[in-house]
Write a structure and sequence with these properties.
The protein is an all-alpha fold. The longest helix is centred in the last third of the chain and has 34 residues. The mean pLDDT is 95. The protein binds protoporphyrin IX containing FE (HEM).
């Protein structure tokens, strides 16, 4: 069941429909992305801090908010540069981000609305700056790819932990999930 991040990114690029034109467009606007990243980080962390549960996670640990602001800015900028043109380094980085969130106990219920906030705030700023619909669409696709990495990490880590602890086969595990879903 172990996920292979490089192949996973290729699948997601295909699935989300991120084209070569999208990649070129994102790269060509990376200066704009770098410029607005700090403002997007402010929106993001203001949003998280308005939620009691997420605020508690943010304030658990010395210097966490400061560190997070810096890593968010870097993450945001990488959506425009694609690091190694959305290759293996990009995939490894996104996978690691997913694992960090699983470790802290941040699940789909936290991450999905948080990413929606990013999409919403970046959309407003794009409009104000007269940026194109094409750039908005390309950013939406890359945000969904990054979101899928964080979500999938949650599933992969949970399933691997159960399989390791119990010694069950993957087929048995899948059957139990399907049966469980039927009775809920
Ligand atoms: C759009 C969704 C999100 C993105 C793009 C994002 C981005 C990141 C990045 C890039 C890191 C650094 C990972 C590393 O150390 O390698 C990180 C860590 C972290 N994120 Fe998120 N995050 C998201 C959602 C959330 C949510 C919903 C929370 C809830 C509170 C959260 C809390 C944290 C915490 C506590 C850390 C670890 C900070 C530390 O102690 O170093 N993140 N995030």
């Amino acid at each position: 069941m172990a996920l292979e991040p490089h192949a996973f990114l290729k699948t997601l690029i295909q699935r989300a429909g991120l084209t070569e034109e999208d990649k070129q467009l994102l790269r060509s606007q990376s200066e704009w992305g770098f410029k607005v990243a700090p403002e997007m980080a402010d929106h993001f962390y203001n949003y998280l801090q308005r939620d009691e549960e997420m605020n508690a996670i943010l304030n658990n640990g010395e210097g966490r908010i400061h560190r997070l602001r810096e890593t968010f800015i870097q993450w945001f900028q990488e959506m425009f540069t694609g690091m190694d043109n959305w290759g293996d380094a990009y995939a490894d980085r996104r996978w690691k981000i997913g694992l960090v969130h699983v470790r802290i106990g941040i699940g789909p219920q936290h991450v999905v609305p948080a990413m929606a906030t990013v999409v919403h705030e970046v959309g407003k700023r794009l409009r104000n700056d007269g940026q194109s619909e094409e750039l908005k669409d390309a950013l939406g696709r890359i945000c969904m790819i990054d979101l899928a990495f964080i979500e999938q990490a949650y599933i992969e880590v949970s399933s691997s932990a159960v399989l390791r602890e119990t010694g069950w086969s993957e087929a048995l595990f899948r059957r139990l999930i399907a049966t469980g879903a039927k009775v809920m």
